[in-house]
Amino acid sequence: MISDAGRYARARACADGLNCRTIPGMDRRRFLLTSVAGALAAPRPAEAQQSPSTARAFTPTVGMVTFTPAFHDSFVSALRQLGYEEGRNIVIDWRRSPTGEQPDLEDLIRRKPDCLLLAGATFVAHARTLNTSIPIVAIDLETDPLASGIVTSLAHPGGNLTGIFLDHPELAGKEIQLLRELLPRMKRLAVLWDERVDDAQLRAARAAAQLAGISLVTLGARTVQDLDGVIPRAVRARSQALLVLTGPMFTPNRAKLVESAMRHHLPMASVFPILAEAGGVLGYGPDLPDLYRQAAKYVDRVLKGARPADLPVERPSKFLLVINLKTAKALGLTIPPSLLARADQVIE
Question: Is 171-286+319-347 in the same CATH topology as 60-167+289-310?
């Protein structure tokens, strides 16, 4: 007489590919019939995964707003390393803002993406007025997230937004130190800032300039058209250099700023290293493409079910000092060896 436990053990052995003949006839027939019925009833995972309608239903969409194709490509490349392939298992609804002005965020939000990636303080602020439910990953280099009320704490942001915030206004003072090394006799400096964003960097620049005995000429801009007159205003004010703070308009319009600065023989430095790459004399600040690689990790976690409220706010993780030796030579400037030795990138 075979116990129930014995029958179960033999049935498991049969299921594992062992000899089924040790199971008595009636029990063997009952076991085989049960196994066949179960196999027929069980779903076939391969077919379920290959169903086009099922695949489409579970393909997440990321709504993205940024300035240049290079930033889009940095984000897509980082997603690929995390297992996503655009057009196969993720859709990126990309809205480009080539001049730094407001894209159609209303339409993007109406499409209800699974996550929003927004670069630029003005875009982030506008999106917050339109949406309180879609998760937002922000890249904001101008706003203090705590002082502005965007988050309740850096460790636990609360709400539907998290991301990367510079929150480092004293960086403007660092730029002034670097310019002073390059131009030790500098007494008058023009500073360009975006009037639509927080003025923390401008206040830090004023404090650093005062400490260094440098007079500051403040140049505000609210529209792309305002940028046309920035460099001539700086020259008329007898500025010896121009410092460009962060702002959504400045990166996409960097070619215009560089061309005008070179035409007026005015050295230009920036918190955006990418402006030095475009022809400014030096730049020290966050590596912008790296910010999008950093943001991809946030997006991945959100798509896997994490809530922005529980994802700590981060600062940029990589800073670069870029010196454009070619521009310096064109302006008749000599870069001190001590400054060149500290550069992460020298453009010749």
Answer: yes
pTM above 0.70? yes
Cα distance between residue 324 and residue 322, in whole Å: 7
pLDDT above 80: residue 338: yes
Residue with tokens 């023989």: 265
Beta bridge partners of 165: 140
User: Is the backbone of residue 271 left (phi > 0), alpha (psi -120 to 50) or beta?
Assistant: alpha
Classify residue 244 by burial, with Cβ atoms within 10 Å: 0-12, 13-18, 19+. Answer: buried
Question: Burial level of 226, CB count in 10 A (0-12/13-18/19+)?
Answer: middle
CA 49 to chain centre: 32
Task: Indicate the fold that domain 60-167+289-310 takes in CATH.
Answer: Rossmann fold (3.40.50)
Q: Could you say which architecture CATH assigns to the domain 171-286+319-347? A: 3-Layer(aba) Sandwich (3.40)
**16, burial (CB in 10 Å: exposed 0-12, middle 13-18, buried 19+):** exposed
Contact 28, 56 (CB under 8 A): no
Burial of 109 (0-12, 13-18, 19+ CB in 10 A): middle
Residue 268: exposure state from Cβ atoms within 10 A (0-12, 13-18, ≥19): buried
Q: What are the backbone angles phi and psi of residue 189, rounded to the nearest 5°?
A: -130, 130
Tell me the pLDDT band of 101, cut-offs 50, 70 and 90. low
In angstroms, rounded to a whole number, what is the distance separating the alpha carbons of residues 262 and 272? 18
